[in-house]
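Q&A log
Question type: sequence-to-structure
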Amino acid sequence: MTGEQFLQDARNAHKAGNEKLEADSLKEAAQTGYAPALAELGKAYREGSVVEAEPGKAFELTKEAAEQGYVPAMTDLADMYMRGLGVQKSTAEAAKWSSKASAAGVANAPH
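Response status: OK
Response body:
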């Protein structure tokens, strides 16, 4: 299956309230390197939803998705740098990723 298919399975599991299947499908999707899946799994690790909160892992997954050009991950990464979540706080890095997101068309990127 593709990353997109695994991600859809995760979303379907979420709707059905099956957290274990959601987590497993998200992990499978992320293993394919599919940017939306990396970002979504990163968000799960940030929030501690369906997986145990792990800010460092959240940062790495979010960064990988952002580096692929996935705009929602760019805005999340800027926020993580701004707050020092899973990474040392860096307003310079936050501004860099916020600018990249803005350049890609996100009007409300965090500053």
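Response note: The mean pLDDT is 93.
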